[in-house]
Amino acid sequence: MTRAENDGESAAGLTISENAYRRIRSDIIFGRLRPRQKLKLDGLRDSYGISISTLREILNRLSSEDLVVAEGQRGFEVAPVSVENLKEVAALRLLLETHALEQSFAAGGVEWEGDIVASHHKLATLERRMATGDMSQTELWKRYDWEFHQALISACGSQVLMDTHAAIFDKYLRYQMIALSHRGDIAAGEHKILLQAALDRDAPMARAVLERHVQGGLDHALATGTIA
């Protein structure tokens, strides 16, 4: 489950404030709250069922994650997007993920392999469905995409690295959802090669494919013309 997907789901034991934070964060990541959208406290209070004071705390927290912009006395708005920021996010994702891949390939065991195979199966199933023109489950597709990439690096041995990568991946995902970027068979083929490289412990191959994968996603998102 993506961090953004997890943020959007209620969970037993969560406080009202934490649950609202996760819902608002997920709505930003998946584009339900659009870039530069004004976040009016009265409207958010009604939508998320929390107090104004709690909303301010949540929006300040999201501001620290660069997902919301605080406008002083004028309130808050969803963080804008830009070509420059997308390029920075993509580069940072690649830096973190390639390092984690190498560590994970060296340490992963049989259970790690099983997790990779299972996560790829789910992703490939959605990719085949989307190849027929069915785009009705784009959020589920990105959830499975995240799960596969997280599975690949899950044996890296560093929770800090995993958490940092997850936060950057969510920002990269936000751009993909805004651009509705889907590269079809090309991306699906790259995922398949990454799967085999993991099973073969071929870190140089995985690194080369991941570089092509992220750059291809970046180029495709920019080509849509939806990010200025």
Automatic annotation (TrEMBL):
Organism: Ketogulonicigenium vulgare (strain WSH-001)
The protein, known as: Putative GntR family transcriptional regulator
UniProt keyword terms in alphabetical order: DNA-binding, Transcription, Transcription regulation
Any one GO molecular function term: DNA-binding transcription factor activity
InterPro entries (UniProt xref): GntR_C, TF_FadR/GntR_C, Tscrpt_reg_HTH_GntR, WH-like_DNA-bd_sf, WH_DNA-bd_sf
Domain of life: Bacteria
SUPFAM superfamilies to which the protein is assigned, alphabetical: GntR ligand-binding domain-like, Winged helix' DNA-binding domain
HTH gntR-type domain segment(s): 14-81
